[in-house]
């Protein structure tokens, strides 16, 4: 009987251990799911912020099997123009800090859940700076107005406290966003966000350089008919010079905030 009793106790202990392991496994599973969800959100945000990369990093060099054009190296001027567009976009965003006034760029990249997908606000509404303390969002489709309003409140509100966008009572396709005068804390939060935007801009510039240098490398390797290796090395140096110049401009922008 004593042996049977001990076996029963051991069985109960094993059951408790199995329950404990199952609980730990469930907790780990929930934690993993939460981590994956956060990662998906980060990737989704990254996709929105890098949405221009596909076109700005492609350099047509010709010389393909399906065309008769001679291969060409990317020009430093073309590379500079593409990089300048990146810098200009960032400068427009920075004006909201230096002038203490809102700009469309503060709103245009806000992710909005609409039409069963995530879209940048600029695809759904026009941003109008009515006054330094009043922004209007004119939705192209009135049915998305509520989603746009919620996205502005939840996303922009992280950097601009007390942001309370409201649907216009007379025009349901328009959202009115009263803009508070920036406090020191608000400015600090926005500057933090602009630092992130600067890093994205630097990444875009690096990708433009890489796209151009991938073509240049073909010339350096003697794989572009009619293009000398000397020309390829020269263009490669010019592109690196432009990249360095644009990098300094970005550093000056963030230092001036």
UniProtKB/TrEMBL annotation:
SUPFAM superfamilies: Ribosome recycling factor, RRF (SSF55194). Signal peptide: none annotated. The keyword Protein biosynthesis applies. Keywords: Protein biosynthesis. One of its GO terms (biological process) is translation. Residues 1-77 are annotated as: Disordered. One of its GO terms (cellular component) is mitochondrion. GO terms for molecular function: ribosomal large subunit binding. Residues 17-28 have a biased composition (Basic residues). It comes from the Eukaryota. Residues 90-253 form the Ribosome recycling factor domain. Belongs to the RRF family. PANTHER family: MITOCHONDRIAL RIBOSOME RECYCLING FACTOR PSEUDO 1, RIBOSOME RECYCLING FACTOR. This is Ribosome recycling factor domain-containing protein.
């Amino acid at each position: 009987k004593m042996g049977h009793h001990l076996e029963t106790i051991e069985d109960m202990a094993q059951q408790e251990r199995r329950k404990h392991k199952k609980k730990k496994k469930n907790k780990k599973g929930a934690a993993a799911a939460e981590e994956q969800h956060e990662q998906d959100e980060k990737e989704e945000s990254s996709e929105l912020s890098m949405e221009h990369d596909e076109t700005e990093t492609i350099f047509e060099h010709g010389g393909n099997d399906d065309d008769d054009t001679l291969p060409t190296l990317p020009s430093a001027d073309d590379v500079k123009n593409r990089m300048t567009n990146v810098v200009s976009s960032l400068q427009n965003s920075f004006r909201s800090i230096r002038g203490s006034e809102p700009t469309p760029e503060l709103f245009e990249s806000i992710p909005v859940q609409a039409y069963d997908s995530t879209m940048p606000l600029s695809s759904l509404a026009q941003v109008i700076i009515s006054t330094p303390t009043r922004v209007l969002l004119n939705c192209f489709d009135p049915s998305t107005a509520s989603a746009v309003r919620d996205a502005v409140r939840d996303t922009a509100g992280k950097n601009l406290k007390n942001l309370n966008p409201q649907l216009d009572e007379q025009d349901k396709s328009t959202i009115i966003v009263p803009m508070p005068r920036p406090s020191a804390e608000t400015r600090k939060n926005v500057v933090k966000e602009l630092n992130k935007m600067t890093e994205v801009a630097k990444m875009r510039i690096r990708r433009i350089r890489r796209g151009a240098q991938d073509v240049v490398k073909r010339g350096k390797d003697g794989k572009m008919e009619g293009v000398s290796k000397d020309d390829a090395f020269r263009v490669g140096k010019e592109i690196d010079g432009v990249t360095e110049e644009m990098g300094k401009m970005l550093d000056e922008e963030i230092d001036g905030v």
